[in-house]
Task: structure prediction
Amino acid sequence: SQRLIEQYHDSSRHAMTRLVLAPCSPFTVSTDLMRESAAMARAYPQVRLHTHLAENQSDVDYSLKRFGLSPGDYAHSVGWLGEDVWHAHCVKLSDTTIQTFGRTGTGVAHCPCSNLRLASGIAPIRTMLNHSVPVGLGVDGAASNDASNLLQEARTAFLIARVRETSAAAMTAREALMLATRGGARVLGRDDIGYLAPGMSADFITFDIDQPALVGSHHDVVAALIFCQPARVEHSFINGRQVIEQGQLLTVELGTLVETCNRLAKEMVASA
Result:
């Protein structure tokens, strides 16, 4: 990790390569590794920490049995709280830990589709936002998310927040989009992304608002991106570089990539 940080990590604004130390979860690595990772990350500028925490009730039960601590208290005991840390899932965080996260600026990567697919539960995002916890969106990974579509994550986060609180006021469409943009930037500790303004990175996407899925929504097309079927991205720019043009990915030969992935998937299934 140290070699990779020193060789590749770029702490400057608009950097496209930043490294994060990310042990998978407290139940897959040792306590010493958690502490040592925290110490190493904080020895370098803008190197952050990430792990999975309190994803489901099994995580909570394991933490109590193995460490005698709740997941949040365990994170505190190994130095994994602070503005340079973000935890994925956090479905089963206690109210006390949520308040601690808000007070310390510890971030959360909300992964609503993965949480639903794995029946982990619905994270208390409204409570987190009420306590000023930095919250962004994630997709978890291909093993537990079959779409990895960030706009779909935003829509799902919007819907299940309302279900959890049994209130249509629990989250607005713009709050969901905020999680996907400024929320993610805050979690990552970036002051150069998350919105468009002079001096910010040119990260933006465009949509065709005349497609059938958005018919009748032109009075508020921003909210329609959440309320309606997730739309195909027409154009995408990352730090000023166009990567999607008229719905087509420009950075790879997509046909070859799809063929390769399908072949590898078939081989994996056959060898299972």
Notes: Strands lie at 20-21, 48-53, 85-89, 107-110, 135-137, 204-207, 233-238, 241-245, 248-249. The first helix runs from residue 2 to 8. The chain has two domains: 1-197, 202-271. The chain has a mean pLDDT of 96.
